[in-house]
Amino acid sequence: MEVTVEHLGTVQFEIRARQHTIACDQPEASGGFDEGMTPAELMLAALGSCAGYYAAQYLRNNDLASAGTRVRVTAVKAAGPARLANFKIEVILPIAAGAAHRKAVEESVHHCLIHNTLLHPPQITIEIEEGAPGNMPTT
Questions:
Q1: Is the C-alpha dihedral spanning 25, 29, 33, 36 positive or negative?
Q2: φ and ψ at 103, to 5 degrees?
Q3: For position 66, what pLDDT does the model report?
Q4: How far is Cα 116 from Cα 36, in angstroms, rounded to an integer?
């Protein structure tokens, strides 16, 4: 997997993965133009969409309605070091599924790649390269 991120100016970035492009920005109060989600919001979006994928997949696999499944993800900012903490994933099912299915949906969300990555943090390596912006590799 690979994404590329290019600085567009001020606090705006363009993010590319395969043939997809999204904008990343900051709210006006933080010097941005509020034309895209912040990096922290993108992280919550990744967790929520991954959890939603697994919840909807469970519902479909059990012949239950999945259209309209919603996920709400919240977190708080923490310090020392600056980070997000206390993530909460709320899955809102479009149907009355019953206790057994609710438990199974919860178990299915535990298979989410992003959820498991946060529970088992990966090693992160940072490399700094110098060169013209046009020399940045593309995907």
A1: positive
A2: -65, -40
A3: 92
A4: 26
* Residue 62 confidence (pLDDT): 95
Respond yes or no on whether the N-terminal peptide bond of residue 137 is cis (omega within 30° of 0).
Answer: no
Closest residue by Cα to residue 3 from 46, 34, 32: 46
SS3 label, residue 6:
strand
The pTM is what?
0.89
R_g over Cα of the chain? 18
Measured CA to CA, the distance from residue 112 to residue 120 in angstroms comes to 12
How does the average pLDDT of the chain come out, rounded? 94
Q: Which parts of the chain fold into alpha helices (H)?
A: 39-61, 99-109, 113-119
Q: Please give the DSSP secondary-structure letter assigned to residue 37.
A: B
What is the third-level CATH fold of 38-121? GMP Synthetase; Chain A, domain 3 (3.30.300)
Residues of the chain under the 50 pLDDT cut:
none
- Any idea where the domains of the chain sit in the sequence? 1-36, 38-121
Strand, helix or coil at 89?
A: strand
Answer for the pair 26, 32: CB distance below 8 angstroms, yes or no: yes
